[in-house]
Design a protein that fits this description.
The chain has an eight-stranded antiparallel β-sheet with strand order 9-10-11-12-19-16-15-14, with no helix packed on it. The termini are far apart. Helix 8 packs antiparallel against helix 9. The chain is α+β, with helices and mostly antiparallel strands. The chain is built from 15 helices and 19 strands.
Length: about 625
């Protein structure tokens, strides 16, 4: 305990660099927390929750599914401490799932079988030699899960069990976070900051009465540190790491804020950080009409329920934020879902009135920031609507790909322009591939799915985009006759192009237009325009190709330059460590432009529903928003 005394007697925490992390006294020294349970759902709140849930069939179905899954968990053997590579994270996440489900089931039903099984799991995890502090996400998630179980079941655990679990939270959760070699996340600008601070605060709240001064310091530290990562939501809510990591970082950020609000009647102004409240609009619009995400960076195309969206809908009194989420909840197969935070939907969504949700009204959402995006659609209610999403930003952002200027497109119920998204990290790390470097020559950029050539953007002289470049959003318009956005890609191609601007828009709600305006630098330049598609491709002319999928068609028509030669490229993995990409094709064309020459490239993507309708030639990008 001497080590703890040294650290907890000051308001400073050391960082790996030797710098000092100072913190404020947000919590008054005289403050006393209520008795257990105190995290998210206070003692005695179960009856009101059950009543609220009972009026919403969708939530009743979810609760019944959680209870059924809890019955399935009962027969499972407790989690064992088995690492995969350098990670224990899958075990930490399974720990949250089991403990959260079982603890919720017990609080709602008071059936002893859930209590006994949760206690067994808590004791097994507490007996691990450690929770893998070298990869602190593992510790953070494990601590959060154990803290919920300890707090929610506190009055019913045996004194011996309480002692062992409490000791594990302190020794294997909180104490390792005080060591400089483990807490670099305190200064991180990405999801580690959000997840790790949430985990440590839950641990601190769980054992508050036994370690009040330490707990206060952990909570104070988190309030000061998490704002560093929350700055990434500014100014409009576009989360730089993409949809999947929004679901990760933002969910834990909301878990942190929700717990603080519940106990302290304030979130210490965290939700007032620029862009944070607006980020619900980002996530709402990141899903297309066929239910697939705009999966740029290390994201996945298919997404499940996002419990944090229920918190935002509640906070903003805006049920329309759950238009997509309600559909996902109805389609949820809890057996195939690994969403460990599902009970939070019941905590945050019980008073929203899910059955009466109406569709959102705006058809376009635009957000600036580290990875600016423009997201547009022709309808919220029509599954065959056109949906287009484009991004700018930088490959230097956490989890980024060489995908600056890339876009996706849905129409007629088909995703025509797609993104591969992430490759499983362990599949690369197990083969000694360093996927975390961000320099121009980093090994990360040898992975096919991360390369410029694998995205719906321009490849110049067969080179990767510049990591140190940044592509800002230049303009946008939500006018229904021509919804559009333009991005300045110039820095992304520094040295090869003197100018590179890209615009994309939906014309008259009928078809999509992509226009690039480029100027070569001092040498002859080769530009490759590509579209990645899951459709079968037939070259039908020098400047046209027909895409077919699920009985639907789309025509890719190059309007300018007048003479190009359409072609396709294989997506077969070039390296032994690349993931396979079956059923996909790259289609497009190449053109060579003289030094210091300006060229415009205009491509129309015409869904079957718009065949036979006039495709207009669109003016230069500077005139787009004058239409």
């Amino acid at each position: 305990m001497k080590f703890i005394t040294i650290f907890t007697s000051t308001l400073f925490f050391l960082l790996p660099s030797g710098a000092v992390f100072s913190q404020s006294n947000h919590i008054e020294s005289s403050f006393q927390l209520p008795a257990h349970p105190r995290i998210l759902l206070l003692k005695g709140e179960e009856e009101a929750l059950k009543k609220s849930i009972g009026s919403e069939k969708t939530l009743v179905d979810l609760q019944n599914a959680i209870l059924m899954e809890s019955d399935s968990i009962i027969i499972l053997a407790p989690i064992e401490r088995i690492q995969i590579g350098r990670r224990l994270l899958d075990k930490s996440r399974e720990a949250i799932r089991r403990i959260f489900f079982l603890s919720y089931a017990y609080r709602i039903t008071k059936d002893e079988k859930y209590l006994k099984r949760a206690e067994k799991e808590l004791l097994a995890i507490s007996a691990f030699k450690d929770w893998n502090p070298p990869t602190f996400l593992d510790v953070a998630e494990m601590t959060l899960g154990v803290a919920i179980g300890y707090d929610w079941l506190y009055d019913y655990l045996s004194p011996a069990s309480r002692s062992l679990i409490k000791e594990a939270i302190l020794k294997k959760g909180i104490e390792p976070s005080l060591h400089p070699k483990n807490n670099g996340w305190l200064k991180a600008e990405h999801n580690w900051n959000q997840v790790c601070n949430a985990g440590m605060v839950y641990g601190a709240l769980a054992i508050y009465e036994d370690q009040p001064e330490l707990a206060k310091k952990i909570i104070n530290r988190a309030i000061d540190a998490v704002v560093i990562s929350m700055k990434d939501y500014g100014p409009d809510g576009a989360y730089p790491e993409g949809a999947s990591y929004w679901g990760y970082g933002t969910s834990f950020n909301v878990l942190l804020i929700s717990a603080l609000e519940k106990l302290f009647k304030t979130d210490f102004a965290l939700s007032e950080m620029p862009g944070f409240i607006k980020t619900a609009g980002y996530m709402q619009n990141m899903t297309g009409p066929i239910g697939k995400n705009f999966n740029y960076s290390d994201s996945r195309e298919n997404g499940g329920p996002n419990p944090a969206m229920y918190w935002f809908a509640n906070k903003l009194k805006d049920p329309s934020l759950l238009w997509i989420e309600r559909s996902r909840l109805k389609e949820l197969n809890i057996k195939s879902s690994n969403n460990r935070l599902l009970p939070a939907i019941l905590l945050w969504g019980s008073n929203i009135g899910i059955s009466n949700i109406t569709a959102p009204k705006p058809l376009m959402w635009v957000g600036k920031g580290k990875n600016p995006v423009a997201l547009m659609r022709t309808s919220w209610k029509d599954s065959t609507a056109i949906y287009v999403a484009i991004k700018g930003g930088s490959a230097s952002v956490n989890h980024a790909h060489m995908d600056i200027g890339s876009f996706i497109m849905d129409a007629g119920g088909v995703r025509w322009a797609m993104d591969f998204g992430m490759q499983d990290y362990e599949s690369l790390e197990s083969k000694k591939i360093d996927i975390w470097g961000r320099k121009q020559n980093a090994q990360r950029w040898t992975v096919f799915r991360y390369m410029t050539q694998a995205h719906n953007t321009l490849t110049v002289n067969n080179q990767q985009q510049r990591v140190d470049g940044y592509a800002p959003l230049m303009s946008s318009s939500s006018k229904t006759k021509f919804m559009n956005a333009t991005i300045d890609l110039t820095e992304t191609y520094k040295g090869a192009l003197s100018k590179a601007n890209r615009g994309i828009g939906i014309v008259n709600k009928q078809y999509v237009l992509v226009r690039d305006e480029v100027e070569a630098a001092d040498t002859i330049t080769t530009i490759r325009w590509t579209l990645l598609t899951p459709a079968s491709v037939t070259i039908t002319g020098k400047n046209t190709a027909e895409l077919m999928k699920d009985g639907k068609k789309l025509v890719l028509q190059v309007q300018e330059p007048a003479t190009v030669m359409m072609k396709t490229w294989s997506t077969d993995p070039p390296n032994s460590y690349d993931a396979p990409n079956p059923g996909t094709t790259l289609v497009g064309f190449e053109l060579t432009i003289p030094a210091k020459t300006t060229t415009a490239i205009t491509v129309a993507l015409i869904p079957q529903e718009a065949f036979g309708k006039a495709v207009k030639k669109i003016a230069s990008l500077q005139n787009w928003n004058r239409r």
